[in-house]
Amino acid sequence: MPGTPITSGTAIRRGLPAALAIVALGLLALLVGSGPAHARATVQTFEDQHTFTDTVDDSATCLGPGATGTITGTETTRWQVINTFDGDPYPGSPPTFHSHGTTTIDYRIAYDDGRSVIGSALERFAFSNRPNQPGTSLTTVVRDTGTLYGPDGRALGPVTVHVVAHVTFSDTNRNSQPDPGEFTANFDRFRITCP
């Protein structure tokens, strides 16, 4: 479940809604193409690639004051969806939906103070859902590595970001997104190191 990992985690934390959007697209594709009630689980693979531009404010991190600017890059997501929404081979058991995949982000951040970061991030994600059942979950793990450059173009050292996020929620309104009052577990760990 993709996001746009960057040094501040601003876009990383946008990753949950983005990941859920990808899951929703996969779920919609499966529901629209659902077959007879006696069909077995289906497995589908998807890929999406796009470029992006956004503003960042990394001044609250170890990059300090002046670390505001613009990020540009390319995001590629590949994911697989497995579901039994199109039929239940075992009467009485709930249908299930599971999606997992990776997002690779190659990016450059140009800070207003002349510094820049060039890096790459790998995000692994998994989403599981059993409609009308407790325990819908989303797990995301990100490793982001980049190099910080000074205004003169000289490499100043590595910048790394590690993120582990897990959400479990009971999707009572069946919108495949965690809403207030639905959370049963919420874990988010974010760590950044700078030169």
Task: Give a quick precis of the structure.
The protein has 195 residues and is mainly beta. 11% of the residues lie in helices and 52% in strands.
In DSSP terms (H or I, runs of 4 or more residues), the helix count works out at: 2
Our measurement of the CA-to-CA distance between the termini, rounded to an integer number of angstroms, reads 29 Å
Whole-number count of domains = 1
The chain-level mean pLDDT equals 78
Helix and strand pattern? HHEEEEEEE
How many beta strands in the DSSP annotation? 7
Strand content: over 45%
| Gross morphology | elongated
Which segments are poorly predicted (pLDDT under 50) over 5 or more consecutive residues? 1-17, 27-39
What's the arrangement of strands in the largest beta sheet? 1-2-3-4-5-6-7
Q: Radius of gyration over alpha carbons?
A: 19 Å
Helical coverage, percent range: 10-25%
Structural class: mainly beta
Report on the biggest sheet: 7 strands, antiparallel
Notes on the structure:
- With 195 residues, this protein is mainly β.
- It has one domain (10-193).
- The chain is built from two helices and seven strands.
- It has helices spanning 10-13, 15-32; strands at 42-57, 68-83, 97-111, 116-129, 136-149, 155-169, 183-193.
- It has a seven-stranded antiparallel sheet.
- The longest helix is centred in the N-terminal third of the chain and has 18 residues, at 15-32.
- It is elongated and about 60 Å long.
- The two termini are 29 Å apart.
- The model is unreliable at 1-17 and 27-39 (pLDDT under 50).
